[in-house]
Amino acid sequence: MTLATRPLGTSGLDITPVGLGAWAIGGGDWKYGWGSQDDRASIAAIHRAVELGLNWIDTAAIYGIGHSEEVVGRALRELPAADRPLVFTKCGRIADPARPDDEPVTTLEPRSMRRELEGSLRRLGLERIDLYQFHWPDPGITPLEDSWAEMVRFVEEDKVRAIGVANFTVGLLDRAEAIRHVDSVQPPFSAIRRDSAADVIPWAAAHGAGVIVYSPMQSGLLTDSFTRERVGTMGERDWRRRHPNFAEPKLSANLDLRDALAPIAARHAATVSAVAIAWTLAWPGVTGAIVGARSADQIGGWIGGASVRLDADDLASIAAAIEATGAGSGPTRPDAGSASR
Length: 341
Known about the structure:
There is one protein chain. This protein has 341 residues and is α/β, with parallel strands linked by helices. It contains twelve helices and twelve strands. The protein has a single domain (8-334), classed as Alpha-Beta Barrel (TIM Barrel). The chain has an eight-stranded parallel beta barrel, surrounded by five helices. The chain has a two-stranded antiparallel ribbon with strand order 1-2. It has a two-stranded antiparallel sheet with strand order 6-7. Helix 1 links the parallel strand 3 (18-21) and strand 4 (56-58). The two termini are 21 Å apart.
């Protein structure tokens, strides 16, 4: 299959509206894992995503303490060179393999960043990473200017094609932009978690940066099959068991919003998951959405999000449902003109 692509800001990269997120395929043996995972199923999911036309994968060194990148690297080597997707990864979160349940350390110290980059290149089996990103801001030990300057050096050394950031505030984005253009930003964004629509996404649109949003289905809540009972069956090492979105009173509000998407999905002959993704892509400035999958068959449930086009009535209905359920926070509706994108 072939999906249309969009330019990722001015980076020179053209990406499909959805890409495969590789967080969960890192496995469950670390603090923020999703539970046990079969590597063979992960590789099959990557191959299926490529077969269906997705042209990028987003991972991170911290996912599974390197295991996600190792699995992605194995999957890439099994594909013909012409079919291999773009690879995006991240640095700045470091865990001790001997103490995997400890909170990872966040650092953007330049020497640490360089060690992480070399490790990612080795695990992925690549000579150059297409998009290298800060995972989270440094908590204040290392000046952002020093960290971003090191990212620029990675580009100059041709170890990285484009550079971006995740989970940054507008103030931090301004500081980075003053040194070198920020090619992309990666904020959390869904119909539940909408705050970045008020600041980071407009900033990116104004500065010519691409936007790839993560968790458009809010870690499974905005999917057709999620139930209250599902929370109780999650593995003990699944991070979602500890998150307020998966406990009352937020859980009921979130699932009520999910249910309100069903009539819209029916009108488009699509899944609720696809509508949730399409809603994020309807916002001006958003280039693509990262969507995770732990098996090949899951991808068919949301791949339609790349092609569903929500009209003004759809967007109004979703905004009304957000208001009625009280789910999440942030702006409730993109500019009506975005519905034709």
